[in-house]
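User:
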Amino acid sequence: MKNKDLVFDRNVHVLYSKECEKILKKKIALHYKKEQINEIWEKIQLQYVDFLKDWRTDLKGKENFHNGKGGTYDCIAIFAYYVVLKDVTTFKEIEEIEEELVLPNFKKLKFVNCNKPIFKKLMHKAFCMAKKNCDKYNDYKMKVNEFDKDKPIYYEFTSCPVAEFAIKHNLEEIAGALCNVDYKSMELIHAKLIRTSTCVFANKCDYTIVGDKDEYIKDHPEYIDENCFRRNK
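Assistant: Predicted structure:
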């Protein structure tokens, strides 16, 4: 089925990105014969459309930067992939899909080293800008602490559409595969994410960020919780 033939309200929703479609089809090919790929892909497309039938209509469509590559709607497509291929896919594979979407942008920032004060300050400014966009589109509820050169960067989400979607459709079991990419993205810019909770199972998703050589890390060892989320003590 061609994407243009999918029936959903394109005034309020957007289609998954081309990059997401490419990656999902590549993953389908790992599990099914060549002649089955189109059939399986169509099932994913239809599941995606079904998901949008009762989904939020206030996320501002293409206008909202959160709805682009690797964003909210790509996550919905990944959830659709998981539902259709649940018997053959794995948590690790879903994690890999999100990584393929998100990490390329961070790999371009290999010159960034968050152990250096200048990059730490620039990162904080980037998060403050992200908060302004969140406030503008009223999708992710974000709070950013004031910058202190002697303390870790801290921000948090108290509302997340992806977490909301996972809970709504009883997909909490796979949500961690999408959230865990935050750790790897920080590692690519010589930073370390320290997180104690997420919106899927708590009232906030917290981000404490330090350089990857900071002594602060030693007091907050990482572990994998019972829901496969990477977390810290």
